[in-house]
Amino acid sequence: MHQRLHILIQRVQTIYMLVVFLIAPLFLYFFENYRDVALVGIIGTFLTVTLTLISIFSYKKRKRQLILNNLTIIINLLLIGFLVFYLLKSPGGFSIPEKGVELLIPLLNCVFLVIANKYINKDEKLVKSVDRLR
Q1: Which of 2, 12, 42, 94 is at a distance of 20 to 30 A from 80, taking alpha carbons?
Q2: pLDDT at res. 89
Q3: Taking a C-beta distance cutoff of 8 angstroms, is the pair 48, 70 a contact?
């Protein structure tokens, strides 16, 4: 068990996915201001946290990690799109200092997951090159 945890933490992509796992719930704190559409935020955050956690523990299956991370990126992009649409329709418009800070959380999630995918791909290429040498 200790060895597995050590291998899990050693991988750079795990750190990026762990950051997503930890910051994703912050979205609900900001999304609380939009009670009439809060269900979308709750579902999106739940899916982000769940898929990221599954991805973290799928460290032996890099292709699965890539699929899960890409799905999580799509969910976060949909959250961003939904929130932008809602903010543009809301009275008072859309101005970043007062409204729109919520967009940073799913945007950061996307950035960290793209970086994690980069390292997963790097690992995949390394494993394939070692297999070719055998």
Answers
A1: 12
A2: 79
A3: no
